[in-house]
Amino acid sequence: MTMKRMLAASLLLALSLVAPLGVLAAAEEPTVYVIQKGDTLWGLSERFLKDPYYWPNLWARNPAIGNPHFIYPGQRVRVYPDRIEIEPRTPATPEAAPSPRPSEEPVAERSFLVSGSEGYLVEKGFKPAGRIITTSQSRVIVGEDDIVYVDIGADQGAKVGDRFSVYKKLEAVSHPVTNVILGEKMIPLGTLQLTEVEGKVSKAIVTKSYQEIGPGSLILPWRDKRRLVPLKAAQQDMNGFVVDSQGGNKAISEGDLVFIDLGKSQGAQPGHMLYVLRDVVPDQQYADISVKKLPPEVIGALVVVASGETTSTALVVKSIDTIYRGDRVEVRAAR
User: Fold this and answer.
1) Which percentage of the chain shows pLDDT scores above 70?
2) CATH number of the domain at 25-88, out of 3.40.50.720, 3.40.50.10490, 3.40.190.10, 3.10.350.10?
3) Residues 67-123: pLDDT tens digits?
4) What is the C-alpha separation between 143 and 137, in angstroms, rounded?
5) Which of 272, 288, 287, 260 is nearest to 236 (CA)?
6) Where would you tag: which of 117, 155, 182, 283 has the fewest CB atoms within 10 A of its CB?
7) Torsion sign (Cα): 312, 318, 323, 328
8) Are 222 and 204 in contact (CB under 8 A)?
9) Contact by Cβ (8 Å): 301, 317
């Protein structure tokens, strides 16, 4: 082979290796679109992704959009093959922004960090590992670094150093539509660690407390629940209801934890994002024709952080109106 042919072959080989990388880079390069007057999230989703039902996803994942019904001419949209991102609006006279403080624990894009203080619903027949039977100096309330005594010992396989989560069981939760009892609230109070173990009882120290701990509190084997929950696409359509809030507050908003009537048996998994809907009731006295149904309003979005068999715990990640027990939740399967 002549020197020229060798050089040509080497060049072709190099191009064959580099070309795919260029194609991949170009594939991720977004198309930039500037929002025009009259554009809607529904229309953008239909136009660029051929899926008008993507728009609640677009709204929930973009902090630049407060109210899903309002987007503004001049806002820039980055369009990828599988998603749309809206650039934050920049102020007219930008000021020098301070350097961002380094995050102690960076959160991956499209993931939600849960602290481990999330409760859940338990059905009948639930049995805890044990209970706190008394506290040091018979105190009614204890917190971190306080001493407690539990009814678990060496006879149950316990050993020094074992850790447990502390819970309290609250009232039963009924379905807002059917009134069927779905379970009882289990609310985390903290964690403890065994320091001295005897046959049937043990001494322990409270290592963390979220709420007040006292005699009668339930204990369960400890699991580290502080974790990142990455978003994932649903494999099937799901429709359900907000059945209660963890804190018992009637008015629910962004950052609150709620329970929904969708669990593993219905296909709900951690990472699924659902939209909170509220039906709009037509006022017939102002309608020239009989109007039986109007499109529902999307008032919020939530992400499942833990799923049981028939219920799940979810974090409200966005809300534009107060959410209440009985509001509908919905997700459509990825298409």
Assistant:
1) 75
2) 3.10.350.10
3) 665 566 777 888 887 777 777 665 544 454 444 443 333 333 467 888 878 999 998
4) 13
5) 272
6) 283
7) negative
8) no
9) yes
